[in-house]
Amino acid sequence: MDCLLATDVQQGDEYVFSIVLSGPSKEEYPNVCYHKPMDQTKLLATMMRNISTMDMAITFGIGGGIRNIGLWVHQQILAQHPTLANLIEKLKVIEGSSSDSEFVSGVKSHHVTDYSLEGYCCLVRFIYMGEIKLDVDLDDFAIGCPPNKPFSVTCKKRPSITGLFSTTNPSTPEVQSETQKAKSCSVARTSSYSELFQLADCFAIKKLRDFCRDKIIAYLTPENALEVLFGYAYQYTDLKAAVLSLVAKNMDTMYSDDKDPFEPYADHPKCHTLLTEALQLKFKNLQS
């Protein structure tokens, strides 16, 4: 409500006010809806498992009589990351094939490296919600059959990222039945920082990669260092340097009781090179 004061406010020794009351102005009633929006985290969690809105599947071969299943995602959300965006664009090119991609039932498949369903679930959670959670509940994700009936996408023992180029509805009763079978037959429902690190490196998701690398380094001990080194760390310069540094500092302890800790890895193609690098680093530390 507006209050307007008259300009003539004084008569003799007394103050006299003339107050004019007016109706409400339009500005007092803005065109705003006061409905509280859904929390962004809850919204993304809902999207992450809403299979009916998704247009892309990461497919996996499942044993025990279960056919291939797919971890469904939204192309636009994955495309926030340039490496994944480039891969999605490649999948949209239907014509032609190459050594690492093929047509299966009219769907273009691009084979990627050998990681588990649980690992990809952790990756998808990070992309959608920015969370890192190694324990996996498949009910949090859109798990269904891959595109094109009758579930004939071939993974060749490797997961593949598959673009959806069909009218297959991933939420049909047939898909839901296959999904429940797949969920019930799976074994461990957890991933690891090592697997997530390698996935993040594969798709150039730096923030996730750096976080997992730091976790791996924090858990390094003289007892597990060589297992990590020969298992995968030798392929990554920064992680290899951290492991070799720990090995060099603890080499005397690791060689106690006349046991050669490198002996179990003698057949590894990088064994001689990595042992040489560790010895060089130890010698350098002694000189400094």
Polypeptide structure, described:
- InterPro entries: SKP1/BTB/POZ_sf.
- This is BTB domain-containing protein.
- This protein has two domains: 40-185, no CATH class; 220-287.
- The longest helix has 17 residues, at 271-287.
- It is built from eleven helices and ten strands.
- The protein is extended.
- The protein has 288 residues and is of the alpha+beta class.
- The protein has helices at residues 40-49, 75-78, 82-91, 117-129, 173-185, 193-202, 206-218, 225-231, 237-249, 251-254, 271-287, and strands spanning 3-5, 10-11, 14-15, 19-21, 56-60, 69-73, 101-104, 107-111, 143-144, 160-163.
- The termini are far apart.
- Helix content is 40%, strand content 12%.
- Strand 7 (101-104) and strand 8 form a beta hairpin.
- It has a six-stranded antiparallel sheet with strand order 7-8-10-5-6-9.
Outline the secondary-structure elements:
Elements: E1 3-5, E2 10-11, E3 14-15, E4 19-21, H1 40-49, E5 56-60, E6 69-73, H2 75-78, H3 82-91, E7 101-104, E8 107-111, H4 117-129, E9 143-144, E10 160-163, H5 173-185, H6 193-202, H7 206-218, H8 225-231, H9 237-249, H10 251-254, H11 271-287
Antiparallel strand pairs: 1-4, 2-3, 5-6, 5-10, 6-9, 7-8, 8-10
Helix pairs in contact: 1-4, 4-6, 6-7, 8-9, 9-11
Calculate the terminal CA-CA distance, rounded to whole Å.
80 Å
What do the pLDDT scores average to? 76
Category from helices, strands and their pairing: alpha+beta
Query: Uncertain segments of ≥5 residues (pLDDT<50)?
Result: 94-108, 148-160, 163-170
Radius of gyration (CA) equals: 30 Å
What proportion of the residues is helical, as a percent range? 25-40%
The string of secondary-structure elements, in order, is: EEEEHEEHHEEHEEHHHHHHH
Strand order of the largest sheet: 7-8-10-5-6-9
Number of strands: 10
Whole-number total of structural domains: 2
Strand content: 5-15%
